[in-house]
Amino acid sequence: MGLVHGRSLKQKLNTKSSTEAEVVGVSEYMPYNIWMVNFLGKQGYKVSENVLMHDNKITMKLEINGRNSCTGN
């Protein structure tokens, strides 16, 4: 198991918090992730695990639970 695709770039959108910046970054990267899985599948490779990694725990909870993990703020 190893890294198939990685990406790092300057975001085109100003954000107010690191959590918001992580959400924007994930949403900008997802089309590339989906394309890579589809491309590898068409080449005959079975993708058994598709993991998107980042380091903001609040953002991960927000992406998994949606608005249920938000406070009233």
Structure in words:
The chain is mostly helical and 73 residues long. The chain has a domain at 17-40 and 51-64. The chain is built from 2 helices and no strands. It is globular. It starts with 17 loop residues before the first helix and ends in an 8-residue tail after the last helix. The mean pLDDT is 77.
Q: How are helices and strands ordered from N to C?
A: HH
Quick check: average pLDDT? 77
The oligomeric state of the chains shown is single chain
Major sheet details: none
How many DSSP helices?
A: 2
Give the tally of β-strands. Answer: 0
What is the radius of gyration computed over CA atoms, rounded to a whole number of angstroms? 15 Å
Structural class: mainly alpha
Secondary structure blueprint with pairings:
Elements: H1 18-42, H2 57-65
Task: Give a short overview.
With 73 residues, the protein is mostly helical. The protein has two helices and no strands.
Notable features of this structure?
single chain; 73 residues; mainly alpha
